[in-house]
């Protein structure tokens, strides 16, 4: 069982009280007293802090006492002598675990003090930790063996910075290929999945902070994120994995909506943000690593900027199955790994948009034939929508800031084209904004002047942040019908969910989760 451990990183006793209470209330299964954060550290202040844990979090709350060396990420440069005094006194005062740096434990003097204190403690145990803030260890297996040789009963803790998500697989393999009590994860934004998957692979602990401000290491999640968004309590060895491959990925709301649907349907699956930096090579290495590691149970991926073309290239190279319209669009936003090792690629953006249009206009797909459509924009989303609508037989004119790009896209799909200055002359029943104009924070911008929006037409804005853009307000003002970008986003996610699981997710739950996420983003 992986213990969800919350570091207490207070500078003074008052702040420590708040953190201990908050950690216990949020569901911490163990506390780590990071005594190196305390101002004016003494053995007495540590004993007092330990006593507080019993009072505020209950006598059963296990605790690790750590006084991290400044050279390995400690908050204050306390001298070795004081740090050893703190650790040995903590054992005497009943700490369940103390954490000492393996590097410092190799000093015979330190080792002797700790061994004596351990022998006098009825329950105290030792965690021997190693940290590399720059990148991977030269040889993580050897380091593990060395720690086990020096002190077999100790729990090895091996933590390194992932400079790229592909660095995570070494820590995951290590956990998968070893057994017993051991801790391994990666620091940094790129290491995020190892902190969550610690629970799947049986790491002895995983760490999460009370709030962002009290995080003790780069990339540490908050306990609220780990238990809420990532459903920590439901993660186990058989949990299957999905995720969104993107760069950047931090603000993606896909984890929130997919995890909410897994939860509501009682599906033992977890959806992760997967920050895959770089180009095709990095994407390829990530996909190979994820596909080869069957023990991770990856079942599929959402793919977004900048990897939609890379995903198509990858599946073609690996001789997977590409949905015909996805290859015509030249971009893939969904990858599915079937049990029988079959890789499938889809584009749910065009279907999501088409479903939003048919629901919003009340016109069935078969009746989109000959519908006059004006598409503003000639980027990735425009391409998917133009492909879908031209497949359905609509009459499309593409308007773009860069006219040449409009011309190119139009020639590929047999459409008309123009520049943004031509918009007032357009004669369309359906107007679609496929540019980023009007997106948060530039919410006072619109891609279309008032004089080209008429009552009787339908206006669809693919921008979903905010849900009601200035363009949609203009349309409502003249009595035009409107379709928001949230509908398209929810539709493409619903289609992905069905491809991943074969099940239908609740559109209302997705929409509500998405809108809540957008509102939270706006507050922060
Ligand atoms: P993209 O490939 O980068 O294309 C951006 C398009 O916007 C281009 O046509 C660009 O014109 C135009 N543009 C950008 N800034 C402009 C400005 N200031 N004035 C006029 N035109 C401007 O991006 P994309 O992937 O197509 O995404 C476009 C938007 O779609 C996103 O911003 C997002 O809001 C929305 N979206 C919605 C969903 C959904 O599910 N609802 C999904 C994905 C994206 P140039 O060619 O002249 O540069």
Q: Key features?
A:
alpha/beta; 19 helices; 20% strand; 524 residues; 9-stranded parallel beta sheet; binds NADP nicotinamide-adenine-dinucleotide phosphate
Mind explaining what this structure looks like?
There is one protein chain. Helix content is 41%, strand content 20%. It has 524 residues and is an alpha/beta fold. A nine-stranded parallel β-sheet has the order 7-6-5-4-3-2-1-8-9. It has a six-stranded mixed β-sheet with strand order 11-10-12-14-15-13, with helices on both faces. Helix 3 packs parallel to helix 5 and helix 7 runs parallel beside helix 8. The longest helix has 17 residues. The model has no long low-confidence stretch (mean pLDDT 96).
How would you sum up the global shape?
elongated
Helix and strand content put the structural class at alpha/beta
Low-pLDDT stretches are: none
Ligands and ions found: NADP nicotinamide-adenine-dinucleotide phosphate
Topology record:
Elements: E1 3-8, H1 13-26, E2 30-34, H2 43-57, E3 63-66, H3 80-92, E4 97-101, H4 102-105, H5 108-120, E5 125-132, H6 140-150, E6 155-161, H7 168-177, E7 183-187, H8 192-201, E8 205-209, E9 221-222, H9 223-229, E10 240-246, H10 254-265, E11 269-275, H11 280-292, E12 298-303, H12 308-317, E13 321-322, H13 324-329, E14 334-337, E15 343-346, H14 348-361, E16 372-376, H15 380-391, E17 395-400, H16 403-413, E18 416-419, E19 430-433, E20 458-461, H17 470-477, E21 481-483, H18 485-501, H19 507-523
The structure holds NADP nicotinamide-adenine-dinucleotide phosphate (NAP).
